[in-house]
Write a structure and sequence with these properties.
Radius of gyration: 18 Å
Structural class: alpha/beta
Strand content: 5-15%
Number of domains: 1
Strand order of the largest sheet: 3-2-1-4-5-6-9
CATH class: Alpha Beta
Helix content: 55-70%
Number of strands: 9
Largest sheet: 7 strands, parallel
CATH architecture: 3-Layer(aba) Sandwich
Shape: globular
Order of helices and strands: EHEHEHEHEHEEHHEHEHH
Length: 262
């Protein structure tokens, strides 16, 4: 099985790459971080003996993506699975964030994800193909103080469900992953710690999320929200008026971010 993973040198991307390698999959890993890609390639080849190809690519740059696609086409690579992991966030109030950073969230989380998904769907194994979109538990709610990030993840959620329906008869399965907190970076750990008990109970194990995400995708599932607490919170997102949710989340995140970002 040939698998493309974007954002492969980050926390979740790295763990998913290791999980895929442990299953004997061939990997094509891309990220903007050249050193991180080299590190993960060496680690996977040493531990699993898997076939790993890496390509440094800025997914927000169409020319950079086209150069990567040219490499794939040169070797006539057909993919069986695409894991859309690449994404980012900049914490804080909308007006306190740099304007270009706000735009960058949308450019990577949404625009770049659509760009690579469209390209790889046209380079897929026609017998069966799987796409995984990494959304977030935040996609279930309006999120004051994380408004842009949550909105980009909601876009991915709705897009994934729609694309699944479009491609169902073309042997393509689409799964959208909506995790809570993930221990991916030092900044993420600070955010989880600042939330206290809520951070602890909504945080997911990277290894468990990676394994179960792949299992569910291969079984044809469409949505995976890891953890019983997170599933319950997601249900509240459908049952409670969104204006109430926004007010509650603002009260919670206002204190959390002051502690976290100062």
């Amino acid at each position: 099985m040939n698998v493309l993973i974007t954002g492969a040198s980050g926390g979740l991307g790295r763990v998913l790459a290791n999980e895929c390698a442990s299953r004997g999959y061939n990997l094509f890993l891309t990220d903007i971080d050249a050193r991180g890609l080299y590190s993960i390639q060496c680690g996977i080849e040493r531990q699993y003996g898997a076939t790993v190809t890496t390509r440094v690519c800025d997914l927000t740059n169409a020319e950079s993506v086209d150069e990567m696609l040219a490499v794939m086409d040169r070797y006539a690579i057909q993919f069986d699975m695409l894991l859309n992991v690449a994404g980012l966030d900049f914490e804080g109030e909308f007006l306190q964030r740099d304007r270009e950073k706000i735009i960058k969230i949308i450019a990577l989380n949404d625009e770049a994800t659509l760009r690579i998904t469209h390209a790889i769907l046209n380079r897929r194994n026609k017998k069966h193909f799987t796409v995984i979109f990494v959304s977030s538990l935040a996609s279930m709610f309006p999120m004051p103080l994380k408004a842009t990030y949550a909105a980009t993840k909601r876009f991915l959620f709705d897009f994934a469900i729609s694309l699944r329906q479009e491609l169902k008869k073309q042997n393509v399965n689409v799964l959208v992953l909506c995790p809570g907190g993930l221990v991916t970076t030092a900044e993420a750990m600070k955010g989880i710690a600042a939330q206290g008990i809520w951070g602890d109970i909504t945080t997911n194990s990277l290894e468990i999320v990676a394994r179960k995400t792949l299992d569910r995708a291969l079984k044809g599932n469409k949505i995976y929200v890891p953890g019983s607490i997170n599933k319950t919170l997601a249900c509240f997102g459908y049952l409670i008026p969104r204006s109430w949710i926004a007010a509650l989340i603002y009260r919670r995140w206002n204190g959390v971010q002051k502690k976290w970002l100062t």
